[in-house]
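Recall that a protein's primary structure is simply its ordered list of amino acids. Everything else, from secondary elements to tertiary packing, is in principle encoded there. The following example makes that idea concrete.
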Amino acid sequence: MLVALIALDKPGALDIRKANRDAHLAYLKGSDCIVQAGPFLDADGAMIGSLIILEVADMAEAESWVAGDPYGKAGLFQNVTLRHWNRVIG
């Protein structure tokens, strides 16, 4: 199943994001369940959140993946939403 992970950063947390970016990217690259991933940007092009599409067996696997993400462990996110997603195009 495909799951969309939608995460918004805490206000003023860009330093937390930058400090943990290398570990987060290594976590993404080391995961075999990533379909697509990238940051949300504000009007000035600064990173303010994340969108990650996971291909997992079930929602529990998606939740486990989220629990291991260095960004989450660092307290970057204001909120994280996991939604079952259906690819129509792409």
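The CA atoms of residues 8 and 49 lie 4 Å apart. The helical segments are 14-29, 59-68, 70-73.
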